[in-house]
Amino acid sequence: xxxxxxxxxxxxxxxxxxxxxxxxxxxxxxxxxxxxxxxxxxxxxxxxxxxxxxxxxxxxxxxxxxxxxxxxxxxxxxxxxxxxxxxxxxxxxxxxxxxxxxxxxxxxxxxxxxx
Amino acid sequence: xxxxxxxxxxxxxxxxxxxxxxxxxxxxxxxxxxxxxxxxxxxxxxxxxxxxxxxxxxxxxxxxxxxxxxxxxxxxxxxxxxxxxxxxxxxxxx
Lengths: 115, 94
Description:
Chain A has one domain: Glutaredoxin (3-Layer(aba) Sandwich), CATH 3.40.30.10. Helix content of chain A is 49%, strand content 15%. In chain A, strands 2-1-3-4 form a 4-stranded mixed β-sheet, with helices on both faces. In chain A, strand 3 and strand 4 form a beta hairpin. In chain A, helix 1 packs across helix 3 and helix 2 packs parallel to helix 4. The longest helix of chain A has 14 residues. Chain A is globular. The N and C termini of chain A lie far apart (31 Å). The mean pLDDT of chain A is 94. The mean pLDDT of chain B is 89. Chain B has a single domain, classed as GMP Synthetase, Chain A, domain 3. Chain B is built from 4 helices and 3 strands; from the N terminus they run αββααβα. A 3-stranded mixed β-sheet of chain B has the order 1-2-3. Chains A and B meet through strand 4 and helix 4 of A and helix 2 and strand 3 of B.
């Protein structure tokens, strides 16, 4: 995937076609960055089903997702097509209870048993 | 210290924060997978805690974008990750 507009439309389809998407370094089973790992752990804690995209596998996606949402870093969490934040924001929202509330408001079904 | 000082100065200028902490956390990330191929400057990862009235009525994402845009040159030139906690004086008191 090297063509810029193809990458952008692929990212767009991915975040809109899946309820929860995490762009991360590494995979959900083998995260390769502490920040990505932090978000992964929070999603696992709640048992939120999500699609993981390993940006280390494709430089055009790694750079493309930064451009897509005007956000310079990975990880990036999307819920129902909307960018929620990176590691710091997800951590803050987790600690304040806002993340769980946001997921429920968006109609995301999750439970620790689904992890 | 060069980049750290520049980050501090730019944030002071842009947001007139009542509290600002900039900590260099680069040593914690040396050699991880995402760092492959990047120069080892010792100034790649920073933790920022900033409390300013400038963030009033701004979402978390908006606050981070404000900071990222002030530090765009640093992010483009070797700074690999910023950890940001941005609050208003009211929020930090609560």
